[in-house]
Design the sequence.
């Protein structure tokens, strides 16, 4: 007797919880009183029909900038001033960093002194030759020394100018590789700058797909983290293959996407043909482990959960249905709301 009372109490508490969920989702309280399968007049549905869809195969890829520059140090020295940081927009010629180049300055002074000495020596040699006191070979030697000194002075001046690091392009600083006070050496990267208006993704395609890829002119790019699909503006298969992995790279150009950044993961769907298929939106599918199902609404607006056998993804945000649905079935596109209504009607 006590056990029976406990069961009634549990059932009563479950009904109260369900009514609270329905109220939170602004659903009609009348739905809670339905016995068996819930009616669902307010749920959005799609009519399942065979239609022509794009056949594609996916390839994982990374976003990269078409115009990107790695700015490195060309002189040795300590970082004296930092004027840019990651995320900052810069213009071509803007100062990004200054390096202590006292050693380069001393080199300029030495090169300037050698230049002046070589110039005087060359002019003296020419005068002595004109007076027949010096051979032409000695004058040629003085001329060569003078030219070498002039080149050394120009090189030293260029090295001194390299102590001021400037942006080579208009863009955004993707990364700063050195901090204030760091000691830098020639070749050390200091900044990475990219142009955000021109992005692309690069995908690796196996050799057995190359025959199809050569005919591809269309592709869709999926950004799973952003929940967004975009149409590619161009597809370009590179003419070489990697000697180790034996895959070829395909560059897919993107439209302007302010939210995309270099290094972001993306998935390219190369369109290789079309076919008539029965599909449902991916967002309508409920998965529990290996089992996939959708909520189907009948003609009298009653809900049922129907198990499916699915194929591959097709088009943008659709997946092929191999078994479990018929043309004309109404599939609920918001399975969470359908689950709550179905639970409240039981």
Sequence:
């Amino acid at each position: 007797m006590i056990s029976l009372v406990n069961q009634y109490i549990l059932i009563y508490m479950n009904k109260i919880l369900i009514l609270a969920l329905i109220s939170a989702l602004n659903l009609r309280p009348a739905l809670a009183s339905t016995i068996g399968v819930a009616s669902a007049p307010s749920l959005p549905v799609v009519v399942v029909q065979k239609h022509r869809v794009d056949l594609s195969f996916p390839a994982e890829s990374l976003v990269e900038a078409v115009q990107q520059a790695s700015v490195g140090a060309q002189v040795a020295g300590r970082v004296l001033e930092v004027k840019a940081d990651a995320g900052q927009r810069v213009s071509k010629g803007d100062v990004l960093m200054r390096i202590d180049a006292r050693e380069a300055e001393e080199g300029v002074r030495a090169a300037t002194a050698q230049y002046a000495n070589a110039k005087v020596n060359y002019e003296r040699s020419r005068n002595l030759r004109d007076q027949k006191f010096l051979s032409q070979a000695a004058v040629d030697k003085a001329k060569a020394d003078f030219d070498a000194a002039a080149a050394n002075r120009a090189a030293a001046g260029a090295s001194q100018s390299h102590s001021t690091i400037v942006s080579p392009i208009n863009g955004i600083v993707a990364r700063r590789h050195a901090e204030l006070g760091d000691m830098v050496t020639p070749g050390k990267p200091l900044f990475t700058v990219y142009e955000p208006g021109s992005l692309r993704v690069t995908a690796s395609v196996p050799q057995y797909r190359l025959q199809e890829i050569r005919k591809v002119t269309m592709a869709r790019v999926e950004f799973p983290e952003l929940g967004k699909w975009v149409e590619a503006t161009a597809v370009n298969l590179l003419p070489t293959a990697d000697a180790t992995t034996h895959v070829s790279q395909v560059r897919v150009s993107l439209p302007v996407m302010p939210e995309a950044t270099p290094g972001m993961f993306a998935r390219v769907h190369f369109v290789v043909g079309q076919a008539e298929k029965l599909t449902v939106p991916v967002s309508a599918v409920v998965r529990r482990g290996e089992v996939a199902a959708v909520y189907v609404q009948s003609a009298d607006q009653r809900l049922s959960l129907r198990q499916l056998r699915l194929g591959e993804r097709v088009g943008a945000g659709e997946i092929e249905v191999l078994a479990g649905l018929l043309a004309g079935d109404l599939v609920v596109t918001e399975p969470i709301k359908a689950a709550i209504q179905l639970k409240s009607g039981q």
About this structure: The helical segments are 2-24, 102-130, 136-161, 210-213, 335-344. Residues 1-40 have pLDDT under 50 and may be disordered. The first strand starts at residue 45 and ends at 47. The first helix runs from residue 2 to 24.
